[in-house]
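Form 7-S
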Amino acid sequence: MAAELHVELVAADRNVWSGEASLVVARTTSGDIGVMPGHQPLLGVLESGPVTIRTSDGGTVVAAVHGGFISFADNKLSLLAEIAELADEIDPARAERALERAKSEADAAAERRAAVRLSAVAGH
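Output:
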């Protein structure tokens, strides 16, 4: 079994992160999934949620992902997201304000996006 897998996290507007990893955890419509080197090929639909990437050098990258697809084959993992932000790029105060605004406007989709952003920051 290979010791690492190549990961590409891509949003509709940019390449968010790429590199080598030992583990990636993402939320799919079937539940949370962990992908390690040597995993069986897969294709799934991403749910809004945090994605955690354990990098080969022992670091951790966390991103807020909103929709998209996950694909794995030949130790190459692709996360193709509608929207994706690295936890380092998220302003927690702004995300908190967006969450409060979404709650007051009863906007469930906006509330979920803001909650995922805050979850990614907390998991970082």
